TrEMBL record, chain A:
A cellular component annotation (GO) from this entry: Golgi membrane
Entry protein name: Glycosyltransferases
UniProt main location, coarse: Golgi
Family of this protein: Belongs to the glycosyltransferase 43 family.
Regions that span the bilayer: 36-53
UniProtKB/TrEMBL annotation, chain B:
Protein family (similarity comment): Belongs to the glycosyltransferase 47 family.
GO molecular function: 1,4-beta-D-xylan synthase activity; glucuronoxylan glucuronosyltransferase activity
InterPro entries on file: Exostosin, Exostosin_GT47
Domain Exostosin GT47 span(s) in chain numbering: 57-352
Cited PANTHER family: BETA-1,4-XYLOSYLTRANSFERASE IRX10L-RELATED, EXOSTOSIN HEPARAN SULFATE GLYCOSYLTRANSFERASE -RELATED
Lineage: Eukaryota, Viridiplantae, Streptophyta, Embryophyta, Tracheophyta
Methyltransferase recorded as keyword: no
Entry's localization field: Golgi apparatus membrane
Signal peptide extent: 1-21
Protein name: Exostosin GT47 domain-containing protein
Top-level taxon in the UniProt lineage: Eukaryota
Length: 506, 425
């Protein structure tokens, strides 16, 4: 608390009132009896001692004399005392109960609440009790559930999430993200996982960890390695899933959750607003690894106006759908990736499936209220490429824009894959445990196709050159050198060998 | 035949008894959907008192005092319009343009004296009450000499707004306030004050307790989405020790605030500190319980803020009388904790059943509850101004034998009180 001079004077005014009160009893007492004189003398002695010692020791004396340890109050000072104290200028005095009572008119009952100094009650173990903390958390959970029921979505419908996937290094990474997002969704949902190359045990064990209702199916063909083909194949896998929805007559809202996309929780609340077909804005994350390649002016432009492209519905000022924001791939075509493990960016198609949601009843075969603008799924059995769900509609204007007409971006599209030849332990379990720890710097990846080495990675190239150089120096002890394990004496022998070699060379 | 009719009577009686249960005095009605959220109706002791309309039930005459009692004081310091004692100024403005105002004093039920006694501020904004008794006395002398209505009843049909710490005792320090007592000239008048504590000198029978002023626009501006989950269990921001006046504690708040700090400072459920966050209002909306402990006086604007933001108030002030206590069932809305039970606050709060907590939140969500705590400009139906008028209307009709004096009868002692008060202002 900062005290300005004026504030200090105000406080001093308050404190002076205290002092005035304290002085009077002692002054009166002096006139009255020798006992009072004795108290006055004691008071003077106390003043002197406090001046010397510098703190209110008389309060401490009273505390030590009169406080009882039997009570739980650590700082209790009895109310009946009138302790006078003058050190530092401010005086605090205790009022006793009888004095207060005299102020009151006779017919009022004595107040239960007393003015004056009270003890600060502290319990013997002033720390949180874990049982109570858990109780409080349950209360909080219940309150939040009630809040969701009141302000969240009323009558939530089931969700049907369609995810195309296949076994590769980053599958666990991507699928775990989608899985955890789905586990947080507060509505009932069915997760349809369509796998390229047939339903595998790896994927099955991964999705079983979620505890969600899943339908795991496989498509016999393997995932192609060109991105363009891969987009087409994913669309095929999604149609396969939609057929499952149709055949099993699943009820709910169908959404397309690609395994490498990122979804926010608000997305799942917003989707509940859809009636038949809804469209959302999708943020497109094209990761640009080759920033150094682009010209300086481009980089500056990007730095000034870093806007990520967004695909989705476009509305006019009265919030009616008038068109679509799509992704224009032309300016980035040269830098884009073709193969799955290319170093360029992966570009999306004009309108991604992920940005659309459907009411599953549109897919049912004999649904009486089916709108006439919905085409039948059978028509697409032999179609090669269904670019977006809009092709399933005869009339694209009935699409409902979601997320305040596309202004909110609640999901992001990204495609990131590891190299095709990257190896990962099956099930990401290292078994048997590794005995040799090899620093990654010293192991060149075998069979690097040279066209993937660009000028940018000059550091990497130097590293490789360095690596190539070193073995010439200490070729014999290379294997031993690399085993920098716990055996110290071996390390020491290694070093002595190296030093020997060095001395030899020198 | 007779037996049959008797049996039918019994069956009908039994049917009626089960279908219509006995009525209790304080019963909250069925859940009524208000906007999108289920709330519960708050029934006071006489039904839905909060929604009563005072217009037509009483007439108030506003005395025309010279501007030195009101306008000039306000001109000297505009901060009086925003601090927590601003109710006296806004009540004056409201009454001037209200439908209950009458320009004919003969037909008035109540008389209002607009004197701003809580507007003499220090540079830090704290009101100094030292001149207030003289100011009030001077105003009463004026109205008693210029109009006959004061002497007719010696103030029994007059009401005054005294929103200071201890009301009409006109002192910020409790012992001094108790010593002074209520200003003798006001002993027959109705006092509208923020202070309320049972069996206390400064609260007299028949007073109307009002909430302290909290700026409505400022609070409205900080409202957040109702969907935001309430994740703080207990929230409090404010002093625990008043370092300037009571460094060791024990005096300030009767040691209750210090006890809260010492017991719960490292409890993860309690978000308590002395810091001044800019997100104070937003944080209250994310909390389930908000502590409203006493300070130097038992009342504080925290209660108003807690009600507006839907946070259940935990009132730690023994014997406190809360605003509009006859119209609002505070026991059902807030949690009352005795000062001696503060060390067990966590046990008390976690052992409240969840259904009770949800019910309290529904009661707090009732818009008439929130409206009754505010002093909006311009006045709206159901706000604190109207609740004051309702309270005054409930005291009507005046008991003629008590209110009006017989000719020649004098009750008030014009020379009572400390000598300093008798000096003219």
């Amino acid at each position: 608390m900062k005290l300005s001079a004026l504030h200090q004077s105000y406080l001093n005014r308050r404190n002076n009132i205290f002092r005035g009160q304290a002085v009077d009893p002692s002054a009166d007492g002096a006139m009255k009896s020798p006992a009072a004189v004795f108290w006055l003398a004691l008071h003077g002695l106390c003043c002197l001692v406090s001046l010397i010692l510098g703190f209110r020791f008389s309060r401490l004396v009273f505390f030590l004399l009169f406080s009882t340890s039997a009570t739980t109050n650590l700082y209790t000072v009895p109310l009946q005392q009138v302790a006078e104290e003058a050190s530092g200028g401010s005086v605090l005095h205790f009022s006793s109960t009888p004095a207060v009572n005299q102020e009151l008119p006779v017919n009022k009952t004595a107040p239960r609440v007393v003015v004056g100094r009270h003890g600060i009650r502290i319990r013997p173990w002033p720390h949180p009790n874990p049982v109570e903390v858990m109780k409080a958390h349950r209360i909080i959970e219940r309150v939040q559930r009630e809040q969701r029921a009141q302000f969240g979505v009323k009558n939530p419908r089931n969700l049907i999430a369609v995810t195309p996937t296949y076994v590769r290094t980053f599958q666990t990474l991507h699928l775990t993200g989608v899985m955890h997002s789905l586990m947080l969704v507060p509505y009932d949902l069915v997760w349809i996982v369509v796998e390229a190359g047939g339903a595998s045990n790896e994927t099955a064990s991964l999705i079983a960890k979620s505890g969600l209702t899943t339908i795991h199916t496989g498509v016999k063909e393997r995932m192609p390695s060109l991105w363009a083909d891969r987009h087409r194949f994913e669309a095929k896998m999604r149609l396969h899933a939609l057929k499952i929805v149709r055949d099993r007559k699943l009820d709910g809202i169908v959404m397309f959750m690609d395994d490498s996309n990122m979804h926010s929780m608000e997305l799942f609340d917003e989707i509940q607003n859809v009636k038949w077909v809804g469209a959302l804005s999708v943020g497109i994350l094209v990761h640009s690894t080759n920033v150094g390649e682009s010209s300086l002016s481009d980089v500056q432009k990007e730095a000034d106006n870093p806007v990520i492209p967004v695909q989705g519905p476009a509305c006019n000022s009265s919030n009616i759908l008038v068109g679509w924001h799509t992704f224009n791939p032309l300016p980035l075509k040269e830098k884009s990736a073709n193969h799955i493990d290319d170093w360029g960016m992966v570009l999306p198609r004009k309108l991604e499936w992920a940005g659309f949601v459907l009411n599953s009843r549109l897919l049912w075969k004999d649904f009486s209220d089916k709108p006439e603008w919905m085409k039948d799924l059978i028509l697409f059995d032999e179609v090669d490429d269904v670019e977006s769900p809009l092709l399933l509609l005869k009339d694209a204007s009935i699409v409902e824009p979601l997320g305040s007409c596309g202004r909110q971006v609640m999901l992001w599209w990204l495609r990131v894959e590891a190299r095709t030849d990257s190896k990962f332990p099956p099930g990401w379990v290292i078994n048997p445990p590794l005995e040799i720890t090899v620093p990654s710097k010293r192991t060149p990846w075998p069979d690097i196709p040279t066209e993937h080495l660009t000028v940018d990675n000059s550091i990497g190239a130097q590293e490789q050159i360095g690596v190539v150089k070193r073995p010439a120096k200490a070729k014999g002890s290379r294997s031993k050198r690399s085993s920098r394990s716990r055996r110290k004496h071996e390390a020491r022998t290694v070093e002595t060998q190296v030093s020997e070699k060095q001395t030899k060379q020198n | 035949m007779k037996m049959l009719t008797n049996i039918w009577r019994l069956i009908l009686f039994g049917f009626l008894c089960t279908v219509f249960p006995s009525m209790e005095p304080m019963r909250t009605g069925a859940i009524k959907l208000h906007r999108t959220q289920p709330t519960e109706r708050i029934s006071g002791s006489a039904g839905d008192v909060l929604d009563d309309d005072p217009v037509g039930r009483l007439k108030v005459f506003v005395y025309e005092l010279p501007s030195k009692y009101n306008k000039k004081i306000l001109q000297k310091d505009q901060r009086c319009l925003t601090h927590m004692f601003a109710a006296e100024i806004f009540m004056h403005r409201f009454l001037l343009s209200s439908a209950v105002r009458t320009l004919n004093p003969e037909e008035a039920d109540w008389f209002y004296t607009p004197v701003y006694t809580t507007c003499d501020l220090t540079p830090n904004g704290l009101p100094l009450p030292f001149k207030s008794p003289r100011m009030m006395r001077s105003a009463i002398q004026l109205i008693s000499s210029n109009w006959p209505y004061w002497n007719r009843s010696e103030g029994a049909d007059h009401f005054f707004l005294v929103p200071h710490d201890f009301g009409a005792c006109f002192h910020y320090q409790e012992e001094k306030a108790i010593e002074r007592g209520i200003l003798p000239l006001l002993q027959r008048a109705t006092l509208v004050q923020t202070f309320g504590q049972r069996n206390h000198v400064c609260l007299k029978e028949g007073s109307i307790t009002i909430p302290p002023y909290a700026p409505p626009q400022k609070m409205q501006a900080h409202l957040i989405d109702e969907k935001t989950p309430r994740s703080i269990f207990v929230y409090f921001r404010g002093l625990f020790y008043d370092v300037g006046n009571d460094p060791e504690g024990g005096y300030y708040a009767r040691g209750a605030r210090a006890a809260v700090w010492e017991n719960f400072k490292d409890n993860p459920l309690f978000d308590v500190s002395t810091k001044h966050p800019t997100t104070y209002y937003e944080d209250m909306q994310r909390a389930i319980f908000c502590l409203c402990p006493l300070g130097w006086a038992p009342w504080s604007p925290r209660l108003v803020e807690a009600v507006i933001f839907g946070c259940i108030p935990v009132i730690i002030a023994d014997d406190i009388v809360l605003p509009f206590a006859d119209a609002i069932p505070w026991e059902e809305i807030g949690v009352f904790v005795d000062e001696k039970d503060v060390p067990n606050l966590d046990t008390i709060l976690t052992s409240i059943p969840v259904e009770v907590i949800l019910r309290k939140q529904r009661l707090l969500a009732n818009p008439s509850m929130k409206q009754a705590m505010l002093f909006p400009q311009p006045a709206q139906p159901g706000d604190a101004f109207h609740q004051v008028l309702n309270g005054l209307a409930r005291k009507l009709p005046h008991d003629r034998s008590m209110v009006y004096l017989k000719p020649g009868q004098k009750i008030l002692n014009w020379t009572a009180g400390p000598i300093g008060d008798l000096k003219p202002w």
